[in-house]
Structures are given as C-alpha cells and as structure tokens.
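Could you help me review a protein record that somebody else here produced? What it holds is a sequence and that sequence's fold in token form. I need someone to confirm that the token line plausibly describes how this chain folds. Take the sequence as given and treat only the tokens as open to question. This is what I was given:
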Amino acid sequence: QVQLVESGGGLVQPGGSLRLSCAASGRTFSTYAMGWFRQAPGKEREFVAAITWSGGSTYYADSVKGRFTISRDNAKNTVYLQMNSLKPEDTAVYYCAAGTSSIKVRIGKNDYWGPGTQVTVSS
C-alpha cells in the first residue's frame, strides 16, 4: 500500500515558478514509476509527466516539455515537479500518481493517486 500527498501548490503570476512535491508512505515507493497529472475546471484529467522507478527516464506532455521537470528522491520517498515559465493555461489541480510501470503511468493506469494540490496562474 502506498499513500501519496501533494504539496507546493498555490497562486503564481504568469512566467513564475513553483515546485510541487509528492510525499509517499510505504517501503515500496522506489519500485513504482511515478507521474503527475492535472485537471482543469470542465476538462478531463491529463498526463503531465512521468519518471521511471530509478529516475533514469522521464516523459512529458508536449504542452509542458521544456518548462517542467520531474525528478525523484527515493531516499526521501518523494517525487517533485519543477514548473517554470508558468502560463494561465497551466491552472489546474495537480495529482501525483504511482504505477507499476512508466507505460501504465503515462496512460493513467495508476495503482495509487494523491488527493491533489491546486495551482493557479494568474496576474
């Protein structure tokens, strides 16, 4: 069993930066691929970024490529999402997720989800 809790969301101006964190409980965190998803009001939840269990490979949605960076620290049971050059269209609830493979994470077939953290990009 893995429990996920996101933090670091908030209000930021366009062009600004935020770093989201996702703390995981459970000794098996390092065996899971991890991902970030987001859901804007009135829209479906969408894939943002994923990272393999080792951190050796990362994947991004085209909309965030070059602006967002996913990373993990298995010693701290934490995965991060560094978000730079934020745009109003990045406004959404951001969710952390854990899955048994990066492929499954990317298509949304995750075993565990966090409750989400709100990110609002507005002037």
About this structure: The helical segments are 102-106. The longest helix spans residues 102-106. The longest strand covers residues 18-25.
